[in-house]
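Q: Could you fold this chain for me?
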Amino acid sequence: MPSPRLLPGRRLAMGLAFAAVASGACARARPTPAPAEVRITSGEQLLGAMHDRYAGKWYRTMTFRQTTTQVPPQGGAERKSTWYETMMLPGRLRIDTDLERGGGTLYANDSTYLILNNALRRSFAGRNPLLVLGFDVYGQPATRTAAILKDLGFPMSPVRDGVWEGRPVWIVGGSGATDLHSPQIWVDKERLVFVRLLQPFVGDTTKTSDIRFTDYRPAGNGWVAARVEAYVGDQRTLVEEYSDIRVDPPVSETMFDPRKWNAAPHWAKSK
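A: Sure. Below is the predicted structure, expressed as structure tokens.
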């Protein structure tokens, strides 16, 4: 999940795709097969269907290592780095972008905290919409998820059919098939997992921010995406690739306290 933000301010993007599940880390049983398709007529109904499909089954914690490739939207050389991410659902995500020097970003308590040299440097109200859509939706009431998304500027209607990467999807928002700019959420119909988010790019609202969760793979009784890509207009600005994934490992609550950033044992430091 990105700590250097794809979208400034409240519209923070996050890197949330995960590579092959580490050996022995996840259950080998595939997630629950999709039942016969139910007609979806509102975003609230879709969020409810996503939640209910995996209620009580989706993992609560996850850790993973992320290889991050970034290209500035205005162009320039690629930058590669390794981030270490720790998740506790709903609503908590820690991104260690500089493990040795104690730097990163924390999403918790409906706020965002920026950490430098193991100390809190800045905080502000704001959530990561990708955490909400890709993960929190399975661990909190659908009404809560809908309220958060509305607050972030995503409509709950209209709902239309579409196809993405050869698979049928529900699309919430947008005025029609030719509208690929206004805020909208795309969800795979069979698996009921989030696959795409579109909205005006905050840095230049004439351009479109397009974030894609791709290459989904089973993880326990849920799913993880093996890759995340982000575009501004036609330019790809971010690729995230994941490894060393652990589903439902023990995770200390202390890891999500911004004033105790360095206090809890970190799973990546202990290896």
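A (continued): The helical segments are 43-53, 129-134, 142-151.
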